[in-house]
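Input.
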Amino acid sequence: MRDDVPGALGLREVKFIITDVDTDAPQLMFMNSNLNALHYYFARDVLGVGLSVADFNRVTYFTDNRRFIVGNIVAYDNYTRPGGSPGLYVLEFWPTDPIGAMAVARTYGMLREAMTFARETLAFHPSGDMQEARLSEDAELFAAFAVPTIWTFEIFEDVRFNPLNLGTAVGALRVIDGTERRPPAPSDIVIYDRLPNDLPLHWPRADPPGIKHRHAT
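Output.
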C-alpha cells in the first residue's frame, strides 16, 4: 500500500490464511500479496489446495464449521489509542461474512502469538453490519474470550480527509449537501459534506466471495 498519502490509500496491510481449522493442528501463514493477490490463489498455487473457487468459498466463508479462516491485518499507524500511544493493528474479515466469536478468538490468539511486536496493539475490527450484529448477539462470548474490539466510528472519528482515488480531473467543482435535486454529472468534481451510502470508508481487505462498546487498548 502507499505510504505517501493520508487515509485509506496510505494504510499498510497483509493477508493471512489459517489452514486445517477443523483439526487440532491449525496452521497460520502470512501471504505475500504482491505474488498472490487473493487468498484463493495462495491456497491453490502455494499450498496446493485442490478446490474450485466455489468449494473454497464454501468451506471458508459464511459458516461456523470452516476448514480455512482468511483475513487481513491492517495497520492504522496514525490512530491514537486511549492513553495517547500511537498505532493500532486491526484484524479484519470480509465485511459480509458473519464470523462468530470462537473463530475470531482463535484467529486473534494465533495472530497475537505470531506477531509478538503487536501483542498490545492488536484488535478485532467488525468491518461490516453483519459482523457488528454478530458481535452484539454473541456479546457474552466475545467478552469471555477477551478479544479487544474497535468499532469503525472509533477508527475514523478523527479522520478529516480520506482520498479514495488519486488523479487529475477537469470539471465543475460542486458541493453536494443533500438538498440538491440534480444528481452529480460526469463533468462534476464533487465535494460531499457527508459520505454517501454507496461509498465505503475504505476498500474491503479480503477476497470477495464472488471470486472465490469495548475500546482497544
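Residues 7-156 form one domain.
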